[in-house]
Each structure stands twice: as C-alpha cells, then as structure tokens.
# Entry
Amino acid sequence: MEEFGPLPVAPLAVPLARSHVTARVETDIERVEGIWRQLCGEVLDSPGQSYDFIRLWTRNRNLPGSAQRYVVGEVDGRPVALLPLHLKRVWGIKVLTWFPGANAGCYAPIADRAELAALGASGRAALWRTMIASLSGASLLYLRSVPVGSREDAGLFDELGTALQTEILYRAQFSSWEQCDAEQRSRSRRKHDRQQGDRLAALGTVGFEEIADPALAHPVIDLMFRQRSDRFRAQGIRDCFVADNLIGFYHEAIEPKSGLDVRLHVLRLDSEIVAVRYNIVHGDRMFCLISSMSASERIQSGSPGKQCLLRVMQSVFGQGLRVFDMGAGFTDEKRHWCNVQVPLRHHYVSLTLFGAAIAQAHCALQRLRMWAKANPVVRNGLRGLRQLYDRGGARTGSDQL
# Structure
C-alpha cells in the first residue's frame, strides 16, 4: 500500500541508538564542495551527482540562492549524505527536486554508501527523516530516476519516501574490448556489422575520432544539436534543448574551467560528420548524454549510428574504461551492447497534504505513461495530442517535475 501523507515533523537532531543524527541546509553550493567531493569519491551513478556538473548547471541557469537547497545529513558530526535540490514551481506547485530533469540519465543522493549500509534500515529512516524535516517552502520532494543499486548497495534508498519503479538504465560493463566483443557479438552479429560497414565504406572514406579540444568541439556540438532538432521535428517531439535553452550548457561543459571531462565521438564520411556522441567521463566510467545522426537518406543503408557506436565501444574499452552508460529507455543498440540493466525509481516525499495529492496524481500519470509505452496505439495517440498542444502555444520552459 502506497502512503503519500506528509512525514511526521522530526527535530533536526535525532538520537539513533548510540549515534546522533543532525541536518543542516545551505543555499550556496560552494559551502558544500568539500563534503560533496568527499562523499562522491571516484564512482558516480550519473554526471548529475557530480559537483562540477551541478555547479555549472546552477550558473548556466542563473539560479538564485533562494532556489537552491543543499541538505547535509550527519551522524555524530560526520557527513553521511547530501541532497542537492532545486526549489521550483511546476504548474504553480512548489516542488523540491534534482537540478537537471531528464538530462543525465539517473540521479541519487550523494552519500557514503558504506556508512548508509552500516546504519541499517531504521538508521537510514531516521537520517532521511531528519534531513527532510529541515526543508521548507515546498509541498513535495520529488526525486526522479534513482537507481535501485547493485547487490552490494541495493536498498540503501528504500526508506526515502514512497518509490515507484519507472524505467531501466542500460550500461555496458567490461574489463576490455576483447571481453565486450566476445560476450556481446555473435558470429552473425559480427557479419552483420561488417556488411553495414562495407556499405558505408562504399559511399566514401569513413573516419572516427574522439574530440576533447574545445576549439574543435564547439562546431561539432552545434552540428549535433542541429541533427537532434531535425530528428525531433521528424518525430513530432518537443525539442527540449532548444525550448529550454540548454545548448549553451553543453558548450560551457567542454571548457576546461568547467571541471568536467567531456569527450565527443565523431563519425565522418568523406570528412562530413554523420554521427556524434556527447559523453562525460568520471573515473573509469563514461556517460553518453546525447547522440545524433545525419538524416541524409543516402547514407542510411550504411547505418552510420550503429557504425559509430561500434567504434565507440572499441575506443571506450580499448582505453581501459570499465563502464559505458547509455542512459534510460530501451533501444536496439542498448539491447545489443549493454549487459547491465539497472531499475530506476521515482521517490516521493509529501511535505504537505496538498503534496500528498500531487504525488498520487503524478504516480498515476507515470503509470499511464508506462502503459502507453507498451501500447503502440495509445502511445501514438498521446504523441498526437502532445504535438497539438505544443503547436497551440510556444513554451519557454519545461513542465516536467
């Protein structure tokens, strides 16, 4: 049974067996940088957990301090968890949520996972309750796309409100290209890839490169977004990058001062760019945030998108990276290459009775979306309604929680 009522008010200091749990809230991201980097370590589930990514996001979006909340949970004075939250209005409703929307695949609290595991279920419940009690000014805390976790850290966020499983995140995880090739490509698959490669090569000289130099990258990024816009237009889908004015963020991210390791994978045909992938690297993980492909009918027989991804896999695991994250949502490419599937859940914490009603309604909407995705007739009907809505009036901002 799902419970969406507001959590009972808890003091900001809670005794936990022999431990003492406290929470505090900052509105300046730089005041939590040390804690963030300490808790984050070398392993991220998403760039959305990166201090540098969120710092750039808040600056690019010109978010005032009044719209930012950084909730630090401590046990016996030691930082254990951090929730970076954006206070925003959606359809007039004040909501606390992650800073980016669907722009980084998944999100999760920044936490010392070993310490969280040691706290046990009751200890984690007390920690989250104390952190949430420090929040004000919103009706709902909505944490979208939180990974369930691996066997080692599964269930660490179970006590954080009410959860609804929504999508699956897809990753390729291998120790080398040889392992990836052996496990993910059958003989018939290799033959098929080779045939597609031959058809593409028959159209011209094929080249592949990785670009990290900002001077070389900026024109490629512009082309990538033009290709994305063409694709959105053909599918009748809202172009979130243009409508939400996000393109500048991805340009800024590749500059050295961002602190992010951005790499572009580019496939060329006779020097013309036909496919692009925009990636962020952290530790031994690469996260693909955006991909694009030329809409030219002339080259489709050579499957430039699939040929680009084949070379990406060879490059990624040939460099010694261990994880290539391809984001949420099923595609044929993910089925072919990804050997790890991570369930994602939306977490809801009602802060008021009104927030409880909103959580119920949003959960119902998410279930409808999942049902529609599995039903082509319903999916196409809803897409048509969305197209009519988008044409009825230009929107400058996202309506997504």
About this structure: The longest helix spans residues 214-235. The domain at 175-321 is CATH 3.40.630 (Aminopeptidase).
